[in-house]
Each structure stands twice: as structure tokens, then as C-alpha cells.
Amino acid sequence: MLDSQPVDAVQEFNTMQVELVRVDDAFHFEAVGKSGVTQHIDAATDIGGHNAGARPMEMLLMGLAGCTAIDVILILQKQKQVIDDFRLKIDGMREKDATPAPFKKIHITYLLTGQLNADKVKRAIDLSMDKYCSATAQFSSSAEITYSFELA
């Protein structure tokens, strides 16, 4: 059983809080954090959702995508690399018919265009994956994370 007590704000930790509010009588929720930006979360229609928001597991991958993207862009900017376009795609593989069904394998494909040196792009991604990305660290004990990148 999980401890239902709130997390105490301790000075040696950065605390984060999110509020989740049910929007309808099914599974549509609005979540908001310190940024004040509202995110919609919903379930699949086959269990009574309305497709009015991202699935919770999709949001985990979105968080990973955002975390590593910020790292890579910051590192490349420090290296004076010119990024014209930056995209990434994440494929997350979960066990079929398992409950719970955490991600077991995650592959990230970085797609970049601009005046970019391939070695610097690889180094930036390696630094994100191995040192800076907190989302990667969160997944690393339960999922194998791999990546590839394409320069155009």
C-alpha cells in the first residue's frame, strides 16, 4: 500500500506539485502544475473515455521527449550549432496483456536540420541520455533506452 501522506518540502530537494481535477463523469481530467499550463488527460473510448486528452503513458513519453529535447538544444546552442528544425519521435514498447505494463524498451529518434556537425549532435545526445535528462534517469531502471539521429 502506498503512503498517502503528502511529501514534506525539504530544503535539499526541489519539490514539484501537480493538481488533477476530474472534468466529466468518465475519465477526462485537467492537470496543472507550477507553470499554470493545463494539460488534458483522458482514457481510451473502449473503457469509457472520450479521447479528450493524452493517455497517461503517452504523457510519460512526452515528458521524456521534452526533457531530452531541451538538453540537446541547449548543448548544441552552447556549441554554436545552428538548428533550423528539431523533432523527435519516441517508440515505447510495453508488455502485452500485463498489469501493470511499464515500458520495457524505448527508442528515441532525433530528427535535426541545420548547420550541424554530426559528432557534436551525437555528443549532445549522449550527454542528455547519460548525464542531464532527469526523465531518462527515471526510466533507466525499468526500460532499455536507445536512440538514433538523422541530420538533413
From TrEMBL:
Transmembrane stretches, start-end:
none
Question: What superkingdom does the record give?
Answer: Bacteria
Q: What is this protein called?
A: OsmC family protein
